Amino acid sequence: MKVFKLFFLGCVFVLFSSGLQAQNGKTTSSDAIQKLITKKRAFNKKYGYGFRIQIYYGQEDEARKLRKSFRTNFPKTKSYLTYEQPYWKVLVGDYKTKLEADRASLAISEKFAGLIIVPLGK
Length: 122
What we know:
By secondary structure, the protein is α+β, with helices and mostly antiparallel strands.
């Protein structure tokens, strides 16, 4: 019984001392770090990476037809025709998050089958 009491008191002491240490932690932030964070946010806002939806990957003539069809069905959404040897891609939309792209893909998949979400950037 005595061993149990000592063990219990030891556990309580350890819990209280670790809690006090966590509360005493200070965070300092230098001006250089704040400037870097501001620059990074401005860069991401201007050139930020994101996602697009790929609706076609194949021959040029079919890619142009699908892009034209997409433009008539979704006139407010931007579409891009890109070439990666030896095939053409039709990419649509500009989405910051994958969740946004997923939501848009639900509406687009009603008209175009086989689409995939493609990350931009690296």
